[in-house]
Amino acid sequence: MNFPTPTLRGALALPVLLALGACTKDKDPTMPAEPTTFEVTVENVSMAYAYASSGIFSTPIGEAAPGPLFPGGKYEFDFVAPPGASLSLATMMVQSNDFFYAPDGNGIALWSGGTQVTGDVTDQLLLWDAGSEADQEPGLGADQAPRQAGPDTGADDPDNTVRIASDAYGNLPAVSDVIRLTLESTGPYSWRARIENVSTTTTIMTSDGAAHPVPLSPGVFVVHSAADPLFTAGSPDRGEGLAAIAEDGAAGALGGVLEGQTGVSGVLSPGAWALHTGPSVIFAGGTPDRGEGLEGIAEDGSPTMLAASLATNPAIVESGVFDTPNGAASAGPALPGASYTFTFTAQEGDRLTFATMFAQSNDLFFAPAETGIDLFRAGAAISGDITGQILLWDAGTEVNERPGVGMYQAPRQAGPNTGPTENGDVRPVADGYDYGAVPERIRVTITPIG
Description:
Low-confidence stretches: 1-27
Radius of gyration: 30 Å
Largest sheet: 7 strands, antiparallel
Structural class: mainly beta
């Protein structure tokens, strides 16, 4: 008896199998599996992050341990930022109850006309009142950090809003007499910030005739695009740790909050899929892109050209695109928490390949190995999580930039296909940048549904 071959398709395959007794209780293990309809879900499991970079500055240059910054001392910290981003920071004016230095809610712009801002930006710092502790004379108050018995010991401020500090005692020094902030470029999309204490032993004069320097405290920094990352002027402190800096110079709590909101938010693009029996239908590792449309997905998240190429490829059994996130009304990228779904019918011997862009990159895409995913094992349709078979590939078509900040990456580029050409091979990405583990970015599940 001749059994149907794996090339039988659709309506033909099932009647033939039935005629040959494929539905008997004890199925002949040598018979091919019945054609099966599969549903595939491609889910974006990345975290949604608010900030590109953040951290704590706490150890003065030349010191071995964290501590306050006295006259002549410096803090330094490094950070990265995408075009259009701003820098905010907060450090305590230690001769106060709850005053701190910070820019306004917009932060300090880090880019100007596509160029990194560098130099002295002290003029963008202001002295703020956190509204968390009642004010006393700067440099003299018993509940101020140099003189208080312990942290958080002063009375509550009757005005609990964050606001510009009031010179109620007539002895507040100018911002530039206490702190200097300078920015230095350390490479594309990266900076070093330097905070210097420029106060002297006579910067604050108090009503008892004494003179004092103005120490600065450990603090936090954050790179942001939206306004008001640390506070909102005219509103109460958010309770995330700013008051701990402003009152006691303790940066750990707010630094931890910012850290949990800092990273590269993964975005998945519309993609294309193909059902095939032979290998390397979309790409072949170690060779250049074929110019059939993979570049359009890998650089710009556009599956149109690749989908057209697959549809006319005789080696492809079936193909299609996934471009509309589940629950969405129109095509678009899958943001964190969103997913795409597509279905197809396959028979034993068929394999699945697909490609979707990791959009916070220049030309990276998620896909199985070039041989594709075997849809049947030991005569049974596969089911469940197949993320372990997915790799992050580099299309080799555009020079890579740091993920999440590059100006030629899809979320930030001026137009499609605008970055420097690489002329490399398709390969698993290995450029020294941290893209996160594949299961932290994407989850792929497959379910037989008929």
